[in-house]
């Protein structure tokens, strides 16, 4: 029950791409989270084109299906999620190529299916 909020927001709808903003906010006033990881399930993660300020690894249990990926901070840049306050968030944008057969906002895929958060914590 860590006090973390994850926002997945479709920021831009280009002709061939979606631009999604992912923001992770820490609402704990006493703890920092280090080496955090964010797992996300989304049907269009097999079409990730570019990640701007997070690291990303696809989790590919089956070669033809990739709907799960791990996002985590870059060392010395945003791998520390600080305690609540003005610096208590990290964010990045993801560029996804459109797959019109499986992903559209009308079908309800503007947001991820599930999101998982895990981190080590230390006193702030």
TrEMBL record:
InterPro entries found in the cross-reference section: COB_C, COBRA_pln
Alphabetized Pfam families for the sequence: COB_C
Predominant location: membrane
PANTHER family recorded: COBRA-LIKE PROTEIN 4, PROTEIN COBRA
Annotated GO biological process: cellulose microfibril organization; plant-type cell wall cellulose biosynthetic process
Record's protein name: COBRA C-terminal domain-containing protein
Coiled-coil parts of chain: none
A cellular component annotation (GO) from this entry: side of membrane
Localisation per UniProt entry: Cell membrane
């Amino acid at each position: 029950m860590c006090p973390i909020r994850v926002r997945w927001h479709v920021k831009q709808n280009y002709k061939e791409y979606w631009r999604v903003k992912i923001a992770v906010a820490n609402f704990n006033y006493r703890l920092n989270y280090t080496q955090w990881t964010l797992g996300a399930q989304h049907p269009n993660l097999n079409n990730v084109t570019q990640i701007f300020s997070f690291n990303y690894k696809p989790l590919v249990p089956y070669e033809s299906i990739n709907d799960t990926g791990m996002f985590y901070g870059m060392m010395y840049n945003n791998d520390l999620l600080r305690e609540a306050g003005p610096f208590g968030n990290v964010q990045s944008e993801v560029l996804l190529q459109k797959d019109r057969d499986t992903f559209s906002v009308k079908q309800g895929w503007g947001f991820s299916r599930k999101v998982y958060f895990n981190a080590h914590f230390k006193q702030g």
